[in-house]
Amino acid sequence: MHGPNLVSWLLAVLTAASGGYCLSRLRRAPCTPVTAPAVPGPGPGRLHAHESDLAEGLMGFGMAAMAVAGSAVPGEVWAWVYGPPAVVLVFAAARRPDRRAHRLHHAVGALAMTYMALAMTAAPGHAGHHSAAGSPALTGALLAYFGGYALWSGSRLLGGSGGTAAVASAGLPRACRLSMGIGMFAMLLTM
Length: 191
What we know:
Number of strands: 0
Oligomer: single chain
């Protein structure tokens, strides 16, 4: 990632903490398959939450690694890390209508990470000066998407009501999504 080292490290801490929180949610409730009989407790909704927590956790750690390692790792490596999951998410969203928007959002995130990695290695900085990387139109579109997503996530977080249990169950995952959106926006902004 181009930009000051302090910003890169702060972004890495933010996204790693968000990723760690998302992955820690995987251990909280057992995952039951969609075909499980209707019994009280976690069900198909929790299965989708596990999928989301896993995708967001891995994306958080990937963003942290990219923020710190950035152009030190070849873009092709990053492309192989983010490209296949993006393709899988796009096909999963096309085949199953449930949670389509959420899967497409994760696919856009993975494709944006692939794009940033390839753009960073295609236009490395020279003698401490970083040239613009990537397509300005595509970067602008991704900035608009993730900026809008961060605003939407923030408004949902602020619009939430309820007691401490409601904030813990809905507020922290929303805050995690908000920090990931802000992190992606910040990474795109430095291109």
